[in-house]
Amino acid sequence: xxxxxxxxxxxxxxxxxxxxxxxxxxxxxALFERGAPSYRYLEYAFMRARRLAYDEAVNxxxxxxxxxxxxxxxxxxxxxxDHSWISPVLVMQMD
Length: 95
Prior knowledge:
Orf1 protein
């Protein structure tokens, strides 16, 4: 920000590469999806991507549950323990 960079997107802690790749995919899709409320708005695209990443984490846990016949609560708790969906952070410089 000292170098007049208007925005910075990063992570609060280490995340697995596939999770970082997935968040980038969701973020850029939201940022450049014409007609979407997040089109060309960093903060809206960021919030949308974060929400979609959370939804995907829950859906993955539920899919594993159905495939394995495991304990639903334990599977979802395991997916949420990853916390990669909450790790992304957007810092914006205001004029």
